[in-house]
Design brief:
The chain has 180 residues and is mainly α. It has helices at residues 10-23, 40-55, 62-75, 93-105, 113-123, 134-147, 149-165, and strands spanning 76-77, 82-83. It has a two-stranded antiparallel ribbon. Strand 1 (76-77) and strand 2 (82-83) form a beta hairpin. The relative contact order is 0.09.
Length: 180
């Protein structure tokens, strides 16, 4: 609906948003079952869906957004510049990239010191084919792209070289990447 503005899709898109809001757990995030527990990974997908709904002009109530901030506060470390999967766990690069992206979608400004410190951490850990983590690369690419400026330049300068270099060059899989 957000891309086409075709009114036929609006009620269905709103129902998807309504279900996402229904499924939100009391502590503010989401997990694999409605209303039961939260983790940063699943919460990130829901935050992206809610952000898409807001951008499309669908009804996304602010109390739900505030509750999401509450969950993210529970999984943040170092004052909000690093994130963990669930409260009490260690922070990870992947959850940090995803948590920072969520914070950007929820209103943190580009000059927020928590965001800039977290972005320094992400940008200090660019794509490394010696340690493949496509999930991290996915979120780090998004958060650096949304951050723009130097973080995006640094990330993209590595990504646009390393990803094509690691494509399969010959055979019927040429142009793809090995599953490992």
């Amino acid at each position: 609906y957000g891309m086409t503005k075709d009114e036929a899709f609006k009620p269905v898109a709103q129902k998807a948003i309504d279900y996402a809001l229904f499924a939100q757990a009391p502590e503010g995030g989401w997990r694999y079952e409605p209303k039961i527990d939260s983790d940063t990974s699943v919460t990130g997908w829901f935050v992206m869906a809610l952000q898409s709904g807001m951008m499309a002009g669908l009804d996304v109530p602010s109390p739900n957004v505030s509750l999401t901030d509450k969950f993210l506060d529970s999984v943040q470390q170092n004052g909000g510049s690093h994130y963990m999967y669930k409260p009490g766990m260690e922070q990870t690069l992947t959850m940090t990239a995803e948590g920072l992206l969520c914070r950007m979608y929820l209103g943190w400004k580009h000059d927020d010191p928590r965001l800039t410190t977290g972005m320094d951490y992400v940008c200090g850990n660019t794509i490394n084919y010696g340690d493949v983590n496509v999930y991290y690369w996915y979120y780090a690419t998004q958060v650096t792209h949304h951050m723009e400026g130097e973080p995006w330049k640094k990330w993209n300068n590595v990504m646009r070289q390393v990803i094509p270099q690691n494509q399969t060059k010959t055979g019927k899989e040429a142009g793809s990447w090995a599953p490992d």
